[in-house]
Structures are given as structure tokens and as C-alpha cells.
Amino acid sequence: MQPIVVYDTNVLISGMVWGGVPYDSIDLAKRDRVVGITCAEIIDEFEEKLTTKLNIPPSQTSEIVTNLLGFLRTVKITNQLKGITTDPDDNKIIECAVVGGATHIVTGDRKHLLPLQSYQGILIVRSRDLLTQFQ
Residue 84: how many CB atoms within 10 A of its CB? Predict the structure, then answer.
């Protein structure tokens, strides 16, 4: 069975803006080494952070999102999952993984997500860990 991966917003931003190991982990989905999944809520947060925090022009942001949606599968979440971490924004990442049948969540969130290590059998790992396992 092919691994199914949800990329946290911080990994999407790092990878799609700066490259490096986060990009290489996203590239696994682009090259069909893993199945990458996302949801509208993650994409919305990603777009918002690109334009407001990084001041990337809307046209460039749209291009980046279109690129991602060309190889990430989208699932619909209901935003019913609450209280898993102390950061409410992380609930959408976990819910996306649960709904999408993910095997992995890839994140750089050392405060809220990585300490969990797993949730309902879904491994929570860093980009480098995913690369080591599936490159």
C-alpha cells in the first residue's frame, strides 16, 4: 500500500517558498512515491499566510496553489475534530489525515504536533523522516 501523507501548512510554506528538505518531501507526492492529500482549510491557511505574512503577490500565490492542487488530492472535512492539541489550527491537519485515511502527517510543529508522535495510528513526522523512509 502506498503511503498517504498530509502536509502541514508550515511544511507547504517552507517547501514551496524556500525549498530544501520540506520541498523534497512534497516532491515525493509530486513524483507519486506517496499520495499527498489536503483539504480546503489547509489550502486557505496556506494562501493566507503566503499573501499576508510573506507578502507574496496574489498572482504568484495562485500559481503556487494551482501547482500543489495538480498533484495533491483534496478531501472534505467537517471541522468536527476539536481539542486534540492546544492549537486549534492543528485540528484541521489531523482531521484531514483521519478523513483521508492518511498514514503520515508531515510537520515542523515541534510544540503541538510532533510531540504527539501519532494519532489513531497516523504517524506524525518531520520532512526528513518521510524522506528517509520513502525516498
Answer: 18
Using CA atoms in the order 95, 98, 103, 106, what is the torsion angle rounded to 10 degrees? 0
- Non-local CB neighbours of 57 within 8 Å, separated by 6+ positions: 51
Q: Which residue blocks in 14-126 are alpha helix, DSSP H?
A: 20-30, 40-52, 58-69, 90-99
CATH architecture of 4-134: 3-Layer(aba) Sandwich (3.40)
Using one digit for the tens of pLDDT, what is the confidence trace for 10-68?
999 999 999 999 999 999 999 999 999 999 999 999 999 999 999 999 999 999 999 99
Cα angle, residue 61 at apex, residues 46 and 108 outer, rounded to 5°: 30
Set of cell numbers at residue 30: 509530486
Cell of 32: 507519486
Say which amino acid occupies 95.
E
Nearest 5°: the CA angle 93, 43, 83 is 25
